[in-house]
Amino acid sequence: MPKILDGKWVRGEILNELAPRVQKLTAAKRPPGLAVVLVGDNPASAIYVRNKVQACRELGIHSEKFTPPESVTTAELIALIQQLNARPDLDGILVQMPLPPQVDSQTVIAALSPEKDVDGFHPFNTGALVANRPGPRPCTPAGVIELLRRYGIPLRGKRAVVLGRSDIVGKPMAMMLLHQHATVTICHSNTQDLPGECLRADILVAAIGRAAFVRGSWIRPGATVIDVGINRVTDARLAADLLRNAPDRLAAFHKNGSTLVGDVHPSELEHVYAYTPVPGGVGPLTIAMLMANTVASAERRLGAD
Ligand code: GUN
């Protein structure tokens, strides 16, 4: 039976370790502070932001939400970020992605103070990642590394294949795996023989955003599968195939009319060594690592050890 890599358990461990650090800062100086910027009314972004604010509340981190309208300009967002950069009580600033098309995301990210960039997206922090120097790391790939470490899955000398080359997940994931001494391949929409590339992986990270795109026949027996995808499926015939080994979930689909699946076919994993389920695998880790980056930023800024 494959081992299930439980992201909720890892999230609990990370948050338990952060709690005394938050208490210490709060007693000595003030609670860590996080600004969350949510532009417009993208429903998925609104849910992510709500969960981030909720995690702050549970941990005792002060959070403030800013909600510029969908029509905001690049200049207006930069002006907001400059105000937040100057606020001494805020240690982190998160601008929820994606931004509307009229906004130049790269320019907005570059306006962040690098020391408050708890997403690790600023070019200064991207440079620190590439050079393997300390600094905030993008939360989702950092969570994956944390999960692999806490489950004792070795990376040194292993073949890691990353599907997807996004700035948020694929590229930083590949760099972090490289720094753990894996041999890393990045695949994308132009890659030839994707199944063949995947079959070489000891560690396969799927981050392409296409429901059940990766089939079991692409995965080497004994590999570890990290599924970063979160895709909503509403088609009943597709759901019946995807959930053919999960009757409880299929019953829930018929009740609710939708289900969440990852980028890997969830009923074709019998032969793997370990995998992250969707939901409950990588998802819970992103917010835990955001909390970790925010606490670390507060410690640096407040001079705690
Ligand atoms: N959108 C999807 N993932 C992320 C993330 O980790 N940070 C931000 N700011 N936006 C996202």
Quickly list its features.
305 residues; alpha/beta; 6-stranded parallel sheet; 11 helices; globular; binds guanine
What is the N-to-C succession of helices and strands?
EHEHEHEHHHEHEHEEEHHEEH
Rounded average pLDDT: 97
Radius of gyration: 20 Å
- The amount of helix comes to 40-55%
Summed up, the helix count is 11
Largest sheet: 6 strands, parallel
Low-confidence stretches: none
Overall body shape: globular
Structural class: alpha/beta
Question: How far apart, in Å, are the first and last alpha carbons?
Answer: 43 Å
- Say which molecules are bound, naming each kind only once: guanine
Strand order of the largest sheet: 1-11-8-7-5-6
Measured by DSSP, the beta-strand proportion falls in 5-15%
Strands, count: 11
Describe this structure in words.
The protein is of the alpha/beta class. The chain contains 11 helices and 11 strands. Strand 5, helix 7 (170-179) and strand 6 (183-187) form a beta-alpha-beta unit. Helix 2 (43-59) packs across helix 11 (283-302). The model has no long low-confidence stretch (mean pLDDT 97). Bound molecules: guanine. Residues 94-97, 119, 139-140, 168, 286 line the site of guanine.
